Amino acid sequence: MAENSDSKQAWKLPKWPWELEVFTILFMLLAIALPFYVHNLEPAPGSIVAELNKTNPAEAALAEQRGMLWSVSILGLYFFHIIVARGTLDLISTPITTLLAPPAFATIAYFRTLILSRDMGQNIAFVTGSIGQILLIAASVIIVSLVLARLHMTRYMLNFRQTKWDIASPALMDKTYTSLLSELRPLLYLPRRYRAAEQGILIEGWFYVMVMPFRMVQSISAVNYAGMGVTGNYFATSTHTLIRVEMTESNTPVFISPAERDEFLRYCVTNVLRLKRSGAAGSTSSGDLAGMSRTQRVTLQNTQSSMRQTQQIRSGGTQAGNVTKPSQPN
């Protein structure tokens, strides 16, 4: 019982990446506070703002109102970022919008402060506008964002320190990867490795992880890529070894591409089938479909079909696409 409880705790959905969120909030506040600070400095004689105050006070007041509008817009952009990130799959540890938010707000903070300081005729050491400084700040913010995303990923992976991974397969990268870029996700969420245990599948990227507990899997099967007409969340790098995973809480399937597809698929189908049968054991025997719900019957039929398809692949059947021979897991 304790082991089962620990297993459920390990496969809980990732929490919000607060490490990156705090970093984002910092630059969001700087995008508001730094221009406000510069605006309240005394404009240098002969500067654009000084001349505007003399010749056209109404225009100067309007410029101040535009500054307030900028502050409100930045707050609105931050909340928009939160909404978009919340709308991303809950199964992903770090949504791409959360990863890109710090560089975006840092860019706004820097250039707003730079433009206003020049209009005020003020020389601010930390905002010079030089190419070297811009590249240094941009590189620093991006590197820190990636480190924080990796830190969040590592902390989440600690949940699985007691998990026994029965199979691990690298993501197969071949020339068909370019045909998947139209789906965008293979570019934003480049997968590195797929792992599977009795409780579910874990997709490991460079700066994110994604979990698919088998209790949330409705069906899983090998498929052939049919182009842009196939809607789905693609965490894949090859069209030759695609596996389609239907989730119970989503109408959009997930596609993955482990190098050892038939071995990976067979393992996953077996465990999905085991969980569905054990879930129906209270009302029927393992082999009796009559007492199951319609969803459970469809799931069993889909998974059994996938198992037969996998067996055909291993025996040299007519499944389209070449399957890479299993290698030792990393």
Order of helices and strands: HHHHHHEHHEEEEEEEHH
The CATH class assignment of the largest domain is Mainly Beta
**Helix/strand/pairing category:** alpha+beta
- Note the total helix count: 10
Largest pleated sheet = 4 strands, antiparallel
Straight-line distance between termini: 30 Å
The helix content is 40-55%
The fraction of residues in strands falls at: 5-15%
CATH superfamily annotation of the largest domain: Pleckstrin-homology domain (PH domain)/Phosphotyrosine-binding domain (PTB)
Number of domains: 2
Total beta strands: 8
- What is the strand arrangement across the widest sheet? 1-2-3-4
**CATH topology heading of the largest domain:** PH-domain like
Could you characterize the architecture of this molecule?
The protein is an alpha+beta fold and 330 residues long. The protein has 2 domains: 15-158; 164-314, Roll (PH-domain like). The protein is 51% helix and 12% strand. The chain has 10 helices and 8 strands. It has helices at 2-10, 18-39, 48-55, 57-86, 96-120, 131-157, 177-180, 185-188, 261-279, 294-314, and strands at 167-170, 191-197, 200-205, 209-213, 217-222, 233-235, 243-247, 254-256. The strands form 2 sheets. A 4-stranded antiparallel sheet has the order 1-2-3-4, with helices on both faces. The longest helix is centred in the N-terminal third of the chain and has 30 residues, at 57-86. The radius of gyration is 26 Å and the shape is elongated. The model is unreliable at 281-296 and 317-330 (pLDDT under 50).
